[in-house]
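Please describe what follows:
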Amino acid sequence: MRNTRKTSKTRNTRNRRTTRRALTRLTIALLAATGLALSGPGTAQATTTVDIPAPTAGGVSATVKFYGTVVPKPYIPDPTAYFGDRKCLNTYHDYNPTPGCGGFQLGVTLHNVRNQPGYIAGLRSTDNWFTAYADTARTFGCLRPDGTFDHSTSFVVRTEHQALMPTYYEADANWVIQQHGEVPARDVGPHFYMNFPAVTVDCPTGMTPAQYGLKVTDVSVTIADDNVFGHSTWSTPGPFYG
């Protein structure tokens, strides 16, 4: 009888562990399905992916991923800080939007590169870097003491054809070519990010500055290469929201 009870207790323990593991996997899957990145307050934003056809028949197509947006709430940036929740400056090898000033990331995957005549011939790119641009609109204003946004205080800061920042060597055209050769099963492309400059937001006493939202439109990635990628531009109107 003791052995039967002990076996039953062991089975119950195993069943509970199995259930917990299943629930954990289900929770992770649901979070991934939403496309949300969990980070600091006001920074969990959706990931948006857009496929862009090749500029010419048989050429290189692209998949653009807009993600990693940081929209600071409250918005109290420190333009001189390299560290902390209010930082606006990137440290060495730090290629991310900062928690103080905010921004976003743009990942590009290029397809059909290995079928290009220049790639097959083993040529290097004649243009050292991919470049990326976007129009941006950031809405600012003030939070009431209860945490709600007061739309009467809002204003928009816009940029047109804003150059995005390259993520280290990942926007190097020849690095992209090299990666296609070294990792045959994976397509590769340039990567960019935007870390915005600080904006002054003046609020009445008792209210807190905040960035209400981010809108990014007219995204383009371009290169002028004579050997592999051609003189190409991949563009999408968006909009992308953060």
